[in-house]
Amino acid sequence: MLARRNRLTRGAEYKAVVRRGRRCAGAHTVTYVNRAVTDGPARFGFIVSRQVGGAVVRNTVRRRLKALCLDSLASVGAGDDIVIRALPSAASASFADLRSDVEKCLARRAR
């Protein structure tokens, strides 16, 4: 579980990352990275809309994305804000497919 200090919590924070951040699209996710906004820890946010599926499916996708981000927390720069938007295909994607999408985009934006 991501600690509270590693999560985006306000709508304005999400909006700022999506508008100003660099975008990377994968097969199942779209990742936005806003580099080094503050000196604090990296923060993650997740957008899983109703197009992905019902509540159970959306929560499953969100939990999978949170677990992936917890694993990759060490490889992300301090102060980076990251928003991951799940596409409808994420509902049927395996955990390994989601992992490759997220890791590819985070590695690309880390450069």
Entry summary:
This protein is α+β, with helices and mostly antiparallel strands and 111 residues long.
- Helix residue percentage: 25-40%
What's the arrangement of strands in the largest beta sheet? 1-2-4-3
Please identify the structural class as seen in this structure: alpha+beta
Query: What is the number of beta strands?
Result: 4
Uncertain segments of ≥5 residues (pLDDT<50)? none
Ends apart, CA distance between termini:
26 Å
Counting H and I runs of at least 4 residues, what is the number of helices?
3
Rounded to the nearest angstrom, the radius of gyration is 13 Å
Major β-sheet annotation:
4 strands, mixed
**Which strand-content bin applies to the residues?**
15-25%
Shape: globular
Task: Please tell me the overall pLDDT.
Answer: 90
Secondary-structure element sequence? Answer: HEEEHEH
Structure report:
The protein has helices spanning 11-20, 55-71, 95-110; strands spanning 22-25, 29-34, 43-48, 81-86. The chain has 111 residues and is α+β, with helices and mostly antiparallel strands. Strand 3, helix 2 and strand 4 (81-86) form a beta-alpha-beta unit. The protein is globular and about 35 Å long. The N and C termini lie far apart (26 Å). It catalyses: Endonucleolytic cleavage of RNA, removing 5'-extranucleotides from tRNA precursor. It is an enzyme of class 3 (hydrolase). Its EC number is 3.1.26.5. Consists of a catalytic RNA component (M1 or rnpB) and a protein subunit.
